Sequence to fold (124 residues):
Amino acid sequence: MRKTIYMVTAAALLFGAAPAHADAKAKDGRVGLSVYGKGLRVHDVGAHIEGHGTGVRARLITYTPKGYRSELTGWKDATPVTAAMTKMSTVGWKWKDGKTFPHGTKLCVEFNIVNGEPCAVIHR
Fold:
């Protein structure tokens, strides 16, 4: 009986552990960030800013675990979207095979017209 309890407990711990994933959402003021992936590999990133504007652009920034900042992408034009009473500008990035980041990297978005830089931490 004791062996069975140990085996069931071990199986529950093994199969009940949450899978590693890179999915995350973050918000800083009017700016939001959504990251989708698995483990240290990111496949899709979406960002939005509340409100419409002309010339709204965004880019992705990374911070290494040691704190070094680098521009992952160049500026990309945002698309204005209206849904009912909500107005926002959105932008997205996709990598076909995913983009791998070191454990602990912060993936952030920066818009050209507003302060706020939400970040998601990529981890195993």
